[in-house]
Amino acid sequence: MSCPISLSLDLLGNRWGLHILRELHAGPASFGQIKTGLPGIASNILSARLVELCDAGLIRKSERIYTLTDKGLSTRAILFELARFGRVLPVPMAPSDPEGIAHHAVILAGAIERAAGPLDDIRAQIDLNGTPFSLTVAGGRAALQTGEMPLAPVRLAFDWSDVEAVANGDLRVAAFAAEREITAEDPLKVAALLDLLQKALDIYGGFK
Question: What is the CA radius of gyration of the chain?
Fold first, then answer.
């Protein structure tokens, strides 16, 4: 029987497999959108990797749009652990894959899902560095997709620098939230969101 670690590495350990999944965790995307998010990848390599991931059941293609399957969504935990490990590594002078807001959203979603309990039920719009994302937490799962959430019960705006400050232990979520834009009709929903974010960023920072 093949080692399961080897099986995973054979599929995901190449130069671009996890990068492609990272792009799709931010939401469905076309070939062109994926390529734009991956500077340096050749079109033929991207095509080959997409075929491999489709064949493995991690993504599906419909109407020229690629989407994660349930199995593909399960790779968020892998990406999150890589993010936690990578945030303490030295940053190169000229990163080959600069951070983008979609990449930040994937990390945040992984942290929120790690912190979410089975009874958490949250819907909110998070404006991260001015870009809107729709957050849905239910049944211990979290989805953070690019785009506005119509009639969002809670809307909170903050920057990735706030996230890193909390993860470093230099700031509390309640502190930056008090200085940022929050829109909500129910204070309890705000409290639930801020509590979950604090737990999530404590996990991301290695405090839990």
Answer: 18
Helix residue spans in the chain (DSSP H): 4-12, 17-25, 31-36, 43-55, 70-73, 76-86, 101-115, 160-167, 173-179, 187-204
pTM of the model: 0.85
* Residue from 47, 43, 71 nearest 59 by CA: 71
Closest CA to 123 of 189, 36, 45: 189
Alpha carbons 53 and 47: distance in angstroms, whole number: 10
Query: Which amino acid is it at 208?
Result: K
Mean pLDDT (whole number) for 138-156: 92
Write the pLDDT tens digit of every residue in 5-32. 787 777 777 779 999 999 999 889 999 9
List beta partners, residue 133. Answer: 126, 146
Phi, psi of 176 (to 5 degrees): -75, -30
For residue 174, the Cα-to-chain-centroid distance in whole angstroms is 22
Task: Give the separation between CA 105 and CA 13, rounded to whole angstroms.
Answer: 22
Helices (H) and strands (E) in the chain, counts: 10, 8
